[in-house]
């Protein structure tokens, strides 16, 4: 319950004018009486009290604001996000770089062919790309003629490769060596295997990193056959040894799968009634690209580039190798 005054009125805060009227009423002894000489003193005291209270309230508010500001500045100096001082240059936060997608080496759009005095080019119709070496891949495609070319390129020109495919008679033929030496092959009506145009065909490719111990493994397994025989086992002889299955398997075990981009392209004539087209956007790691509906995508395929290998009758049971360079009538 709230306190009451002698008059019985509820206690309440009075204004200055109301207080003055009350004091004049109570202090006077009759009509026309003068106000109490203490009234002005009381009013001035009340004003001073209220002013003091307001000053204290403002001071407290300023103190709280200053404390909060100091806390923010302190936190900023600790985290490095505070305001820059005049003597310090502003540092702009660097946004993280967007992811860079490596598409690997580019395949040429055409494959040059030289058959005696006849020279022409075949357009690229199918391509497959990969992002790891130390593995073997199979490229599946559907040829449109018996005039089919193959090209392999590597992100590192010093990488090793082996390219193998069927030839007439059911044997395998191919090329091997360093990618930078220019690798590929070509079928014509004399070398294309029986049934070449009856359905999908396959070529196989193995790619090894530049530092793969090819010469060492070839010597360990007795597969290095230099020419002449008295010559040391060099990269040329070791490259021919890559056609041996045991050499490839030993190398795969030694180097394991590791990063390294490479690509293989299949070149052939467009089907009758269509025009030559070019490749689309470069896919990555195991994906394929075709520029004609007659060419099918390969299954987990890919291939690399390299130099042509020379004939080696000793490896015919595993791979029959031809010696034609990629710009001539070479065999895959």
TrEMBL record:
Residues 270-314 have a biased composition (Low complexity). Residues 262-332 are annotated as: Disordered. It comes from the Bacteria. Residues 315-332 have a biased composition (Polar residues). The keyword Transmembrane applies. The chain crosses the membrane at residues 55-76. Keywords: Membrane, Transmembrane, Transmembrane helix. This is Uncharacterized protein. It comes from Nonomuraea fuscirosea.
């Amino acid at each position: 319950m709230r306190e009451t005054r002698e008059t019985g009125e509820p206690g309440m805060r009075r204004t200055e004018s109301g207080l003055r009227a009350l004091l004049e009423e109570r202090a006077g002894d009759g009509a026309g009486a003068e106000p109490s000489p203490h009234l002005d003193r009381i009013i001035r005291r009340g004003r001073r009290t209220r002013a003091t209270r307001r000053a204290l309230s403002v001071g407290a508010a300023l103190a709280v604001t200053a404390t909060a500001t100091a806390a923010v500045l302190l936190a900023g100096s600790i985290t490095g996000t505070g305001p820059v001082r005049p003597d310090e240059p502003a540092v702009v936060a660097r946004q993280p770089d967007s992811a860079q997608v490596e598409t690997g080496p580019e395949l040429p759009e055409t494959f040059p062919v030289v058959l005696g005095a006849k020279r022409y080019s075949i357009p690229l119709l199918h391509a497959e790309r990969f992002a790891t070496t130390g593995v073997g891949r199979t490229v599946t495609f559907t040829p449109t003629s018996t005039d089919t070319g193959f090209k392999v390129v590597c992100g590192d020109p010093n990488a090793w490769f082996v390219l193998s495919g069927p030839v007439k008679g059911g044997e395998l033929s191919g090329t091997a060596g360093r990618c930078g030496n220019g690798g590929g092959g070509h079928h014509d009506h004399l070398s294309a295997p029986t049934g070449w145009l009856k359905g999908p065909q396959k070529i196989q490719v193995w790619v090894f990193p530049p530092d793969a111990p090819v010469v060492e493994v070839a010597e360990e397994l007795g597969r290095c056959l230099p020419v002449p025989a008295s010559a040391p086992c060099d990269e040329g002889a070791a490259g021919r040894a890559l056609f041996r299955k045991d050499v490839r398997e030993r190398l795969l075990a030694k180097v394991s799968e590791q990063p390294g981009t490479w690509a293989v392209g299949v070149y052939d004539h467009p089907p009758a009634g269509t025009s030559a087209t070019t490749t689309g956007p470069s896919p990555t790691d195991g994906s394929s690209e075709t520029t004609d509906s007659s060419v099918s995508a390969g299954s987990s395929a890919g291939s690399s580039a390299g130099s042509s290998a020379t004939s080696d009758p000793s490896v015919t049971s595993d791979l029959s190798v031809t010696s034609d360079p990629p710009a001539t009538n070479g065999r895959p």
